Amino acid sequence: METTFAYNIEKVLQKKLAIYTELTSLLESETDYIVKMDVNSLWSVSTRKKELASDIERVRNSIIFLLDEQQIDHGMDMRTFNLEKIIKLLPLSAKEKASLEMIKIAIEGKRNQIRQIASSNRKYIQDYLGVIDGVISTITGGSKNQSYGRRGLSVSTIAPSFYGTKFGRGAATSLISARA
Questions:
Q1: How do residues 142-175 score in pLDDT, each as one tens digit?
Q2: Measured between alpha carbons, how far apart are the two ends of the chain, in Å?
Q3: What is the Cα–Cα distance from 105 to 154, expressed in whole angstroms?
Q4: What percent of the chain has pLDDT over 90?
């Protein structure tokens, strides 16, 4: 990069990319912990994800600060932060902007990968909770629960048995007998 300002922007974007790369790796580890039902590791991952989210916010603030410092009118805050718009606003050469654009593309790729892994992890968790709920229902033979409907009225419901779930009898047998 030819200017100090461009170098500083690039350095902050590289830091953002590194954070997203770590978050991707963390989510991949989370997938393994979900499959293994390693609750302690899941808590550790959750704590680290919160730290990384704060780091991303700090990076965004740093970029906005750099723009403000150079008196570049951007009209953005944390809610309206847009990296593509920022790169277009920068008073840099085409070569410098192209370099920043490449980093932006890598960041977007990581963000998409993060969304996919996070979505998959949420699905795994829902599936495992369904299995656990089903096992408990099977063991207890289904239970009558009190719950509240839309209007706050108490409604009597029967908890679904494990056999009524998408996992079926074969899954119950496999889970209980520890067969794969």
A1: 655 555 555 655 554 444 444 444 444 444 333 3
A2: 55
A3: 52
A4: 56
Q: Between residues 128 and 104, which one has the greater pLDDT?
A: 104
Q: What is the 3-state secondary structure (H, E, C) of the chain?
A: CCCHHHHHHHHHHHHHHHHHHHHHHHHHHHHHHHHHCCHHHHHHHHHHHHHHHHHHHHHHHHHHHHHHHCCCCCCCCCCCCCHHHHHHHCCCCHHHHHHHHHHHHHHHHHHHHHHHHHHHHHHHHHHHHHHHHHHHHHHHCCCEEEEECCCCCEEEEECCCHHHCCCHHHHHHHHHHCCC
The pLDDT tens digits of the residues spanning 30-86 come to: 999 988 889 899 999 999 999 999 999 999 999 999 999 999 999 888 888 899 999
Cα 8 to Cα 127: distance, rounded to the nearest angstrom:
45
Contacts for 27-30: CB closer than 8 Å, 24+ residues apart: 27/114, 27/117, 27/118, 27/121, 28/117, 30/117, 30/121
